[in-house]
Every structure is written in structure tokens, then in C-alpha cells.
Specification:
It is a single chain. The chain is an alpha+beta fold and 424 residues long. The strands form 4 sheets. Strands 2-8-7-5-6 form a 5-stranded mixed beta sheet, with helices on both faces. Strands 9-14-13-12 form a 4-stranded mixed beta sheet, with helices on both faces. Bound molecules: oxa(dethia)-CoA (UT7).
């Protein structure tokens, strides 16, 4: 429908990136349940369906006691296919110079026809589990932040991921806060672990935006890309909780064992639905269900008033970030790394400089991946770890902003990982 040239189609050539793993080879069915990729609507899937939920591990009190929260692992997945600015200029009226100058983007990744938001998520999730030294059965919740689900509303992506991983102790739901989704998800996951209601959560940000792009619209098609990033959020009992659970004194519990650094130090979430029309997919929901007319009018693609969104970002996000830094009891000089939503390098620079920070402390990969919406912050966090730019004990400011309009900012104290450092 969208006219973007595929591997077998005419048009711009798309070269594979050497190091990216093949989705197919790393997606293996788990635990003898229906083969991954079998659609819930197919006969194969319904015949093989057996609901299963394992009991929680025994012998340990967890529910309802406060816990210190940390990010225990992270992973990312980018599709192998690269679409460069020069490739785009062969089929839409744009230039490499314009895109670089206005956005900082050089190239972006495009999912293959077989890839979906869940398959991107699954690859990122496997990396996150490996770096955390955990298995899918350690998870008791899976949250996927996305607005580009596999299906038209349900099932959610998180359930597809749960099944494919064999995470048979886990609940699963999606969060849609567009490009702010991952920061919203961080807040939800942190709260559930800190309260003791959940123990180990897989939080994914994933988008297959290429399926929502109008390849005839140069004002949007040059901006977006596909990808997924994932983190594991888990907790350790506070001294008080440990003492209560074991009937020991607080002094005897964790006194000689200081807790690991980690977790959210602050969180700021915001929304202004009055600006919803600045960035939206007009049709396909209850307001404008799919019809021949909606398809002819190209209403199922992302529409954006770029200037409005730009103005919103550079006016709202610095205030949200400043509030998050203040709530954490820090100043901007205490922030080791700024990991902002990768929409436009000009926005990243403007936000960091408005805060009084140095652009050298901003992590930037929008040049290689474009805007991956809810996936951009976790992909950037993961890449920052891989490149040694984010180390245990560092304070990192994350921020997302976009459709809704929504925004979110948080300060995280980064934690050490206890699994393999190179899951590839
Ligand atoms: O993830 C959600 C959050 N999204 C964002 O944060 C995006 C925020 N917005 C932006 O980053 C920028 O507004 C854009 C990158 C989308 C656009 O940059 P801009 O500097 O605001 O450009 P503009 O929209 O003002 O367009 C300037 C000119 C126009 O031509 P005229 O009217 O001046 O003759 C556009 O038609 O550039 C033209 N133009 C293009 N030219 C070549 C727009 N898109 C293109 C293009 N190639 N792809």
C-alpha cells in the first residue's frame, strides 16, 4: 500500500548492514508451544493453544514489600536493511544535504517484509535478558511501548513477545504514548517493582514505523526508521523489607551489603491533548474506521506539522528535564549523559543547551537510525553502554516527546549488569 520499494521491488537499493543479525535465525520457538510467527488467528495456532501459567517461585516473600529498583540489562535490535538519504532522493523530492542539515539524519533502518514490531522486540529482549543473566521464566511482566503493533488493535505486542520467549510466568500489556512511551513505561515498571507488586519486568520500546510512512510525503518519510530497545527492570529488597521478611533486625539485614546503584531518581510525565493534531495517524481507529475513502485519502499514514512539533519540543522538553533533575536533587552538572528522544539533532542540542549542559554529554545516534519513536531512548541507552559512554553509577537523563502531545523525563542512576556483556 505504501509504495516503498521492497527487496523484490523496483526503486532505491537498500543495502544490508554487515553486523546485524538475521531475524529469522534468532527467532526460535520456545518450550514446544506454537511456532513463533504462527498467527493467533490461524488454525495452527488455535489447535496448539494451551493456556499455561507457572506458579511463582516458592519460599520467598515479595509482594507488597518495598524494593530498590535497578535496570539489570539492556538489548537492542535494528533491522539489517539500511535506507540512506541518497536512496530516498531517488524516489522522493529531497536531498541528502537538506535532510542532514535539518535533522542530522544520514540513514535509517527498514524492517524486512517478514519483520514485525514483535519480532524486533523479541530480538532486543533476548539481548536484555542475556546482559542481565536472566531467563524468560524470571520475568513476571512484559511491557511493550509502541504505537505500531503487529495487529490492528489486538492482541497486544507484549503477548506475542511473551509467547515467543516462553515467558510463562509473565503478564503482558502495551503502552501507547508514542515517542514518550518508553519514559512512561519506565515509570510504570519502576513503580510496580518498587512497590513489590512485581519482581522482574521486561520493558521494550519498539516500532515498525516504515509501515505507517507515506513514501510520497517528503515532510515525514525522511524522518523515521524501525528498531527496538529493551531493558530489564528488577529489584532487591530494602533492608527494612528483608528484616521484616526474615524476622531479623534491620541492622542485621543488609547492613554490610550496601545496595547496588540503580533505578529512577525522578520522573516527570506530561501531556497536552490540545496539540494532538500536530502528530497523528488520522484513520484506522474508532474515529475514522478504515474505508476505501480513508485509504484513498492516505489517512492511514503518519501526518505531522513538523514546525509545531519542533516548537513544542524545544519549549516543553527543557522544562520537563530541568524539573526531573531538580526532583532528583541534582544539578545539570551532575548529569553524566543526556539520552533524549532521537528525533532531530537540532532539538537534542537545543534542549541540552537550554538546560545549561554541554552537547558533548548528549548521546546521538539519530544520524544512523533516524527517529524510531518509542524505541529511540532504549536503543540509545543500550548503544551508550556498548560504547562505554554509560557506566555503573552514572546519572543519565532520559527524555521522550511526541504524539499526544506527550512528554516525559527521568533521571536514572545506572546499574552494573550481571550477565554476559556481549550477547551477540
Ligand atoms: O518524534 C516525534 C517528534 N517529532 C519531532 O520532534 C519533529 C519535529 N520537527 C522537526 O524536526 C522539523 O520541523 C522538520 C525536520 C520536520 C522540518 O524541518 P524545518 O526546518 O522545520 O523545515 P520546514 O518544515 O520549515 O520546511 C522548510 C522547507 C519547506 O519549503 P518552503 O515552504 O520553505 O519552500 C518545505 O517544503 O523545506 C521543505 N521541505 C523539504 N525539502 C527537501 C520539507 N521537507 C523536505 C524534504 N526535502 N524532505
Amino acid at each position: 500500500m505504501n509504495g516503498f520499494p521492497t527487496q523484490n521491488g523496483a526503486g532505491a537499493s537498500v543495502r544490508p548492514a554487515g553486523s546485524a543479525p538475521s531475524t529469522r535465525s534468532s527467532l526460535e520457538p520456545s518450550r514446544g508451544t506454537p511456532a513463533e510467527g504462527s498467527s493467533p488467528g490461524t488454525e495452527e495456532a488455535s489447535q496448539a493453544f494451551r493456556p499455561r501459567r507457572l506458579p511463582p517461585p516458592s519460599g520467598e516473600r515479595w509482594h507488597g514489600t518495598p524494593h530498590r529498583v535497578r535496570i539489570a540489562g539492556c538489548g537492542k535490535y535494528l533491522p539489517a536493511r539500511i535506507l540512506t538519504n541518497q536512496d530516498l532522493a531517488t524516489f522522493v523530492d529531497t536531498t541528502d544535504e537538506w535532510i542532514r542539515a535539518r535533522t542530522g539524519i544520514h540513514e535509517r533502518r527498514i524492517a524486512s517484509p517478514e519483520e514485525t514490531t514483535s519480532s524486533l522486540s523479541i530480538n532486543a529482549a533476548r539481548g536484555a535478558l542475556a546482559t542481565a543473566g536472566l531467563t524468560p521464566l524470571d520475568l513476571d511482566l512484559i511491557i511493550v511501548c509502541t504505537f505500531t503493533g503487529d495487529y490492528g488493535g489486538m492482541p497486544n505486542v507484549a503477548s506475542v513477545v511473551q509467547h515467543a520467549l516462553g515467558a510463562n510466568r509473565a503478564g503482558a500489556f502495551d503502552i501507547n504514548a508514542a515517542c514518550s512511551g518508553f519514559v512512561y513505561g519506565l515509570g510504570v515498571a519502576h513503580g510496580l517493582v518498587a512497590s513489590g507488586l512485581h519482581r522482574t519486568i521486561l520493558l521494550v520500546g519498539a516500532e515498525t514505523l516504515s509501515r505507517y510512512i507515506d513514501w510520497h510525503d517528503r515532510t515525514t518519510c525522511v524522518l523515521f526508521g524501525d528498531g527496538a530497545g529493551a531493558v530489564i527492570i528488577t529489584g532487591e529488597a530494602t533492608a527494612e523489607a528483608t528484616a521484616e521478611a526474615t524476622a531479623e533486625t534491620t541492622a542485621g539485614a543488609n547492613a554490610e551489603d550496601p545496595p547496588m546503584p540503580g533505578g529512577l531518581m525522578s520522573l516527570v510525565l506530561g501531556a497536552d491533548g490540545a496539540g494532538a493534531n500536530a502528530l497523528l495517524v488520522p484513520a484506522g481507529g474508532t474515529r475514522l474506521p478504515p474505508s476505501y475513502e480513508s485509504i484513498d485519502a492516505r489517512q492511514h499514514f503518519i501526518k505531522m506539522d513538523g514546525k509545531d512539533v519542533y516548537r513544542f519540543a524545544v519549549s516543553t522538553v527543557p522544562d520537563a528535564c530541568a524539573e526531573a533533575i531538580a526532583k532528583a536533587g541534582l544539578t545539570v552538572d551532575d548529569i553524566d549523559l543526556f539520552v533524549l528522544h532521537q528525533a532531530n539533532v537540532r532539538i537534542i542540542r537545543a534542549v541540552v543547551e537550554a538546560l545549561g549542559g554541554s552537547f558533548e554529554r548528549a548521546f546521538v545516534n539519530v544520524d544512523r537510525y533516524g527517529n524510531t519513536s518509542a524505541a529511540s531512548v532504549p536503543i540509545a541507552l543500550c548503544e551508550a553502554v556498548e560504547l562505554g559512554r554509560l557506566k555503573p553509577g552514572d546519572r543519565v537523563l532520559v527524555a521522550g516527546f511526541g504524539g499526544g502531545l506527550t512528554w516525559g523525563a527521568a533521571v536514572i542512576e545506572w546499574s552494573p549488569f550481571q550477565g554476559v556483556t556481549d550477547p551477540a
